[in-house]
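=== Structure Prediction Worksheet ===
Name of assembly: unnamed complex
Input type: mixed (protein and possibly other molecules)
Chain count: four
Listed entries:
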Amino acid sequence: MAEQYWESAVSRIDDSTVRIRGYDLEELIGGLTFTSAAYLLIRGALPTPNQTKMMDAVLTAVLDYALQKPGTVAARYVMSANPNVAASLASAVLAVGKNTLAPEDTARFAIDSYKRLTESNDDAVVVAARIVAEERAAKRRIPGLGHPVFKNVDPRAEKIKTLARELGFWGPQAEFYELIHTEFRRQSGRDWIPLNDIGVMALVLAEMGFTPDETTGIAIISTLPGVVAHLTEEQNSGRPIRIVAPEDVSYDTIVRDFESDKEVAGW
Amino acid sequence: MAEQYWESAVSRIDDSTVRIRGYDLEELIGGLTFTSAAYLLIRGALPTPNQTKMMDAVLTAVLDYALQKPGTVAARYVMSANPNVAASLASAVLAVGKNTLAPEDTARFAIDSYKRLTESNDDAVVVAARIVAEERAAKRRIPGLGHPVFKNVDPRAEKIKTLARELGFWGPQAEFYELIHTEFRRQSGRDWIPLNDIGVMALVLAEMGFTPDETTGIAIISTLPGVVAHLTEEQNSGRPIRIVAPEDVSYDTIVRDFESDKEVAGW
Amino acid sequence: MAEQYWESAVSRIDDSTVRIRGYDLEELIGGLTFTSAAYLLIRGALPTPNQTKMMDAVLTAVLDYALQKPGTVAARYVMSANPNVAASLASAVLAVGKNTLAPEDTARFAIDSYKRLTESNDDAVVVAARIVAEERAAKRRIPGLGHPVFKNVDPRAEKIKTLARELGFWGPQAEFYELIHTEFRRQSGRDWIPLNDIGVMALVLAEMGFTPDETTGIAIISTLPGVVAHLTEEQNSGRPIRIVAPEDVSYDTIVRDFESDKEVAGW
Amino acid sequence: MAEQYWESAVSRIDDSTVRIRGYDLEELIGGLTFTSAAYLLIRGALPTPNQTKMMDAVLTAVLDYALQKPGTVAARYVMSANPNVAASLASAVLAVGKNTLAPEDTARFAIDSYKRLTESNDDAVVVAARIVAEERAAKRRIPGLGHPVFKNVDPRAEKIKTLARELGFWGPQAEFYELIHTEFRRQSGRDWIPLNDIGVMALVLAEMGFTPDETTGIAIISTLPGVVAHLTEEQNSGRPIRIVAPEDVSYDTIVRDFESDKEVAGW
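=== Predicted Assembly ===
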């Protein structure tokens, strides 16, 4: 049998039936919350009630962050120039990356670290200490730690961790990450550095079986309703083209002469 | 008092408290489903249980459409070249527009049409007939009608309409749109043309108070979990750079001579 | 003969030869400027020296506009959060639309207006007056006119117009648009309203044979080198996550109680 | 003096004068080709004639690659769903990354490698051998080498290299990269693996002083005129919504029962 160029198990269309992971879409409408549907689509199986509860908590962890989230601001600038929701939301999506909102680095780090533990014969504390020492020697940040505002404890992260413990999504992988956290505080002397909200999202979603890339996808979805709300505000703001006020910018003030410089350049 | 350049009521950050539409984010985590949170963010108030139920139905109406949704295919091509979730999801977002998935045109049409009805002294059937006649004369499509697969009835649309009736989100605006639909079938003779899934999403969301732009924002969110699932498949496909197979393309086969053509062009 | 699903005449790959509009790419490298290559790709034929000269002028018309171009600002916000050039440039591209930088509306208007003139038996001034009267009655802006800074004359637009006249790219279509401009100033009494830079780009590119959509594509390309320069500045700024300073925002300050409001909502 | 939140030296607006890197924009229009303007914007100084010539060659190195460039295909899918040039071009931009078109990895590698050479007391061949051995041990690809079609020699890369040698943009950094290339062929036994077009773009642009991020920005610009041409084809194709033909997809065919599975999941 010839192999097709594409392969997919997410959904398929048979005549007039759309099957989502094998289920008739018509039955899902009204039968599933969006959160459960998202779980089904990505993980390929219906969630248990606890899985849905956990995922709802994760999806509400970073709902909005005022005009201190770069993606929201970018989206509002785009909307002011090109009043199109898709274009503007896409800009907010594109601002999810290394410096904000992407849990994937923490998820990868937690998964890799735990793998090293399971492959090692050493004690967990020893492995954690070794990992921290290596990261520090290579001057790499340990992803998931630290927050510009919260010291010691990020209350949103704690809330999710508590729920995760209750619902059974705080397993050995997350616990080993916490050991690494403790070691980091010890070795660095920065005792106040907390586990942050994106870090805890990563640990819980990885525990639920999502891949690192999928954790970022989920974080992106969680951030969009707030952006939609901001786009409505932008539309109602009465400002057609947003700028940065000249008094907030230090502009270079050199004046150059084109004709003479062109000659000097050899033209 | 000086007026600030920006204004926002979506959220704000006071010291260590993030307030979402006035509520402490810490309380919302675990206290609200994502769907309720999305409603709160966009509409500015907590939803009733019926509003959440309705919105969950709308958010699950178009969960995935296999490799027959252009945005999903675009996202997989991007992922194959640039294995980055944010970039790939953004491409899927950008494929929401005039030809697919954007309820805004239907929402605008339904709102404007109903406004004409309320401002007129004529009977609803007369106003509907006039609107249809105008659209047909201007050769404009009536948005929300027609589907490439379904004739007469789009079963997903019917499911949502039934739920909307039960839950109280099928009001006079939607009913007037249905009158227009009936008139369209009569005047065009195309009796088989159904109300489609995007059309019904538009009518229900407009009835709930969302603006046309917001209906597109919500449709975009609803489509993303499926795309995340496809991106994982793409990553696992083992194909680093997707192409279109040469046998599926009719390429122009002219061969031209650069040097002689350049001379002809005057260089 | 079976018809393929895709069709293309832009380029093709034969064994190891890439043919661009029929020419061997190897010969083009070093044999054509980028501007000439862009013309060849889009228009399908080699440009004359005058066409290249004209297009270079158009491509340099709006090189950069400091932090007063929303797309540049959006791109810098994205870069600060997700330090990735492709994601950031994409945001700048997405800010090209109705309110800034997209010549397509003017190009469409100029082409449609001129078509009306050629199909009419009336004098050009009469047709122009009629078009202006219609647009004003419908409260539509005439695209291509007006600038926030320049009154009477946009010097960049004048410079391009002068070049277009010299090089033969200011034809009857552009001249009829100018008649409409004159009529608009007469009818509106707003005598100071100039033809702007984007408007003149539209007129010249349409005269050269580019479609309205292509004029926007060309404007997008012309704007990107400046954005690349801004992204380097952003990387060197030492600010990892850009925000809007809280003192520049008027935030809503309502505090609400989640538990009691939830009860009121019926949960 | 208070420090402003933003800083920029790319352009500024004084009353009615736009200054691009210090030059009056009005003088640049008609006085500079787009390629020279791009150099000026990004590097901050007027190019010499040789620099412009070199950059034109680089900008024409990968003009188009038929429907075998994932970004072009993604852009056409987006255009078919959302007929908007900005949205579609943005998708093509987003497909520039690790697997295609981004010279930044090669540029970084070449710069870092050369730095190691200058900091070492060892012979260049020894340092090259050491670098290759390390990369091979870590199972990392050496960026810039290899091509799916061309073996031994990528003729476009050779053309650019020849020009770079003539014009003085093939310096010790590029030469050391070539030593690494030679070493790689020796150590791996894969004697046929060529320097590719993206690799040579990286080496030349780095030699000219562009940063790795900027090389990707320039590659993105170079790829867009071809995409604009493809978007016109897509608009003229008469296919409103592109799909992947069902016969090209291997779909999972499991059918599941929602109600019973829901019960099993504990609802």
